[in-house]
Design a protein that fits this description.
With 237 residues, the protein is of the alpha/beta class. Helix content is 30%, strand content 23%.
Length: 237
């Protein structure tokens, strides 16, 4: 099954938009406890496994991270790959909140790149001066933050005028967003390895754009690298 899926993706993805490689692999990533906690349908299981399990064999970035890379490239009318973009964007000031998959290895080549990570930094109260960055990036982080609207408002605060916050969250496209407050704890990461920083606070759905606009951004674009497996949010200040 893994070999068949990998061959299909090699046709669908001509090259990795992160590094340029043309070699892909595939693994299933969901486990039964998480499937049950999220009450996922068979279709939802399939596209989440694609999102997290299709990966570039060279740089290790999965479909989700490739989507994030492509959204960045399109937002700046940029080059063929993220590698090329990072080698030619010396003036761009970028804040990365927690490592965005394996994209960090490329993003850190930007002279004005700054990586911050939990728990040293609280996403809802960033110890960073206002209007410092052109671009804020985070990937599958917001669902773990108790107050996602507040976290996004902090992302907006540290952006310069017309700056962009480009990020991913797991989106179940066939339902609305719900808080997991009062529900049994659900964790991302690895099966059977619960961790406080991996507990899910919010399950985002088709109305995720509302959280972005409520945080004060003037627009929210849903960028589709592959629907519904690889969706990216582009928020403009």
């Amino acid at each position: 099954m893994e070999e068949i899926l990998a061959k299909e993706m090699e046709i669908a993805l001509q090259y990795c938009v992160a590094c340029g490689s043309g070699h892909f692999g595939a693994v299933d990533v969901l486990w039964r406890d998480l499937i049950d906690a999220w009450q996922l349908s068979h279709e939802e299981i399939n596209y989440i496994n694609r999102q997290q399990g299709i990966f570039c064999q060279k740089c290790g970035n999965n479909l989700r991270a490739m989507g994030l890379a492509k959204a960045i490239l399109c937002s700046y009318s940029a080059h063929r790959t993220l590698v090329e973009f990072c080698n030619s964007s010396a003036e761009l000031h970028v804040l990365e909140i927690n490592k965005a998959g394996n994209l960090t290895q490329f993003l850190q080549k930007l002279p004005n790149h700054k990586l911050i990570e939990y728990p040293q930094f609280d996403m809802t109260n960033l110890d960073i001066e206002s209007e410092k960055f052109d671009l804020v990036i985070h990937s599958d982080t917001l669902e773990h933050v108790p107050f996602p609207e507040r976290a996004l408002s902090e992302c907006r605060r540290v952006l310069r005028p017309s700056g962009l916050c480009i990020f991913t969250v797991p989106i179940i496209v066939g339902r609305m967003t719900r808080s997991r407050t009062g529900l049994a704890p659900s964790y991302h990461g690895q099966s059977g390895v619960p961790a406080d920083d991996q507990v899910v606070c919010t399950e985002f759905g088709a109305d995720v754009w509302q959280t972005v606009l409520k945080a004060g951004f003037c627009s929210c674009e849903v960028f589709s690298f592959e629907y519904p497996a690889a969706l990216v949010l582009i928020a403009r200040k």
